[in-house]
Structure formats: C-alpha cells, structure tokens
Amino acid sequence: HLRKSIKVSLLACACLITGTFLFRSCTGSNQKEEVEQVTAQTSSSPSSSPESNTHSFRLFLLGDALTQEQLLAQAQQADGSWDFSMFDDITDQAREYDLAFYNQESILGGDHLGISYFPTFNGPQAFGDYMVSKGFNLVSKANNHCLDRGEQAIHNSEAYWSSKAGVISAGTNESQAEQDAVNVHECNGITYAFNAWTYGMNGNVCPDGEEYLVNCYRDDPQKMLNWVKEADQKA
Question: How many CB atoms lie within 10 A of CB 207?
Fold first, then answer.
C-alpha cells in the first residue's frame, strides 16, 4: 500500500508540472504575439513616436551683477581697459546652456556719464560685453538701481542692449508700447516669453508721463499679472 501511494503521488506531481509548463508555454506565446502586434502598430504611426513630440532646452540662471567699487578696482587695467576674468569659473558654465540669464543690477548707463558706486551705481559697459561673450542671452534690467543715474542712463542702457545681437533684455523701456508688448521667442522648438519687474527704485520715480521707463509693480501689481496671463496664453 505504501509503494502504491508513493507511485500515485509521484504521478500526480509529474502531471502537475507538465500541465503548468504547457500552460505557461501557450500563454507566453500568446502574450509575445500581442506585444509584437502592439509594437508593430505603434511603429507604423509616426505621430505616436515620443521623439517626434519632445523638445527641451537647458537654462542657466545667475543672480545680481552689482559693480561694486572693490570689484572694479581689481578689474581695471593700467591702460584703462577692463579684465573680468576673475568671474570665469562661474560664467564659463553658461556656454553649456541654450539660455543663460542674469540680472544686471547696476545699470550700464554709458561710461561717459562716469562710473559710480554706492549708493548710485553706473557700471562700465565693458562688463556687459564680458557677460555676452560668455553666452548670457537673457538679461534683466529691472531692479532697485534702475534710476540711480536718472533717465539718461536708461536711454543709454537701452541703446547698448539693443545693439547686442541674440540677446533678449527686459525691465526698462523706451515707450509705453514696448512695455505693454508680450514678445514670444523660440528655443529648440519651445516658445517662451521673458520679462522683468522691480518692486521699486530706492525712492526714485520715473518722470511724469514716462512711467513706462521702468517695469515697477509697486503701484499697479495687476499690470504685471495681466502681462503674465497674456504671456501664458501666447507662449
């Protein structure tokens, strides 16, 4: 009886193992056919390819560039030229990115106005040349030092940045239409809008009728928010 029980048990195990193997073989084959079919259908449709709809760009962000007296004393050479290579370890990284942003905290209002320091700054335009040479192409001009050297410095700054091909700057303007405009740009197939605003100008104010000179949201934050909403729809 014991021998017979053992034989029956072994036979049952063999049947179970064989059945399980056959079941898995059949279902595995069906699953493989289904996967191949789905893959074939996906490959036949160009619009379903992830690569055809994927766009990206890399963005580098740097903070305030404020031309303090100690900095410029180190940068100015004996012949009157400027050498800002002390920043290379930071600024050289910008070349690896599609878009590189920084805030020009001290206005570049023209060297003929006189380079000045705290509390009313005016930096050398050579510093802007240096930053552009490093690949910076998004520049904020809106900050609390915008009006440090008056309206003329803004006009000079506008002319300077407008002369830089491939550089998009924002925050100060030459007209109301320029301030209101929502300009859309493109990078690697992605559209974007860019602007800059400041909370104030250290107690300075724009001349009457020329409030557009500086994007200041303190008295009318809704104006800034409206710009953002329009930009969100366009870009």
Answer: 10
